[in-house]
């Protein structure tokens, strides 16, 4: 099939290259994306007023597509704040203190707990929920603070966030950009996420134990009475110990019921997100009204405001980038109008078909390219701002290869989030570094080799799965 490539296609490709270049230089890409949207719109329509309106319309379209994701993350953060303030999180985690008797148990217990909690609460709130309570325990067991930070980073910001099976923010972005169902991305990511996680965490633990034996890493004392910066001091008068125990049992029970409902009722995507979000709101209301009593109404609003501030702060840089990449697929017609050639199947699909006709791409080249693109987009320190690009490139290569859209999309998503979501880029490591009182650059350096090893192995495995 012959595909007509117009100036719109070349402008789109040019700005993809520019966005990647700016990310490599660690510069913000919002202005680049806005200029790209404007140039595509004015080239398509020839109307200055329409093109200016298209910038706003593209933002509105992106926010509409991402709103449920922003909303659920904001609500979960608000709920996690109530758990921290009331001290319920201390009670929830206290049974696991008995498991932490040596450095090995400390590393794997904290890591696995971080992964599970991050699936439901997201990693940044999970760091606050977990770190302040278990850090002193882990240090007494012989695990250095840097090892605690590594465990929380790799299991939370790495494994949990790169798969994002419950909240589904990451697969939502990549599946939209790739033009495939979200469940396809989740299914394809499961083996890759766990292979990446297993290889990386085992390698990290090996290097950690080696340096501990050599005396390069040692434990330092941390006062349990002095919470790490960024955590909220417990207010024991808000709830009685019996009430804390009740909510500590109720919260995981309700989320376990949600997971069971997702399986039984076959809920995925927006339906699954809505169930988690609604449950989080109910938990927030119950805890706020019980703990703050007659001030519960005002405190509930305050918690929600804090959650929304976090949500829009995290996704603020994502919106311009997502707005640009939505132009590569169905978003073009809804944002700008019907200005593509009659035979066009969307800018990205057109490029993929054209590329397939002139360059004999292979699944090996596709897998390596997606890992590279994903890693580059993660250099901005967000992990999320560039995964729309990974989805678009995956769609392009899948059309060229003739298969593997879901696997390539998942691979790009994993690479982007492992690099930029909080395991390698120093400014993305601040939450864990602050909780553990370690240098974020040293934490990034420690994570580098294990993550690179994991990405190489995962890319090779992806080649066989395509």
Question: Can you put this structure into words, describing what you see?
Answer:
The chain is mainly alpha-helical. The chain is built from 20 helices and no strands. Helix 3 packs across helix 11 (270-292) and helix 16 packs antiparallel against helix 17.
What is the C-alpha radius of gyration, as a whole number of Å? 23 Å
Question: How would a textbook summarize the main sheet?
Answer: none
> What is the beta-strand fraction?
under 5%
**Beta-strand segment tally:** 0
pLDDT below 50 for ≥5 consecutive residues: which ranges? 221-234
Q: What is the succession of H and E elements? A: HHHHHHHHHHHHHHHHHHHH
**Average pLDDT number:** 83
The SS-based structural class is: mainly alpha
Short description:
By secondary structure, this protein is mainly alpha-helical.
Write the layout of secondary structure elements.
Blueprint (H helix, E strand, L loop, with lengths): L6 H18 L5 H16 L2 H39 L1 H6 L9 H19 L1 H18 L4 H19 L5 H10 L3 H33 L26 H24 L5 H23 L3 H20 L2 H9 L4 H5 L11 H12 L4 H15 L9 H15 L3 H19 L6 H7 L3 H26 L1
Helix pairs in contact: 1-2, 2-3, 2-13, 3-6, 3-11, 3-12, 3-13, 5-6, 5-7, 6-7, 6-19, 7-9, 7-18, 7-19, 7-20, 8-9, 8-17, 8-18, 9-18, 9-20, 10-11, 11-12, 15-17, 16-17, 16-18, 16-20, 17-18, 18-20
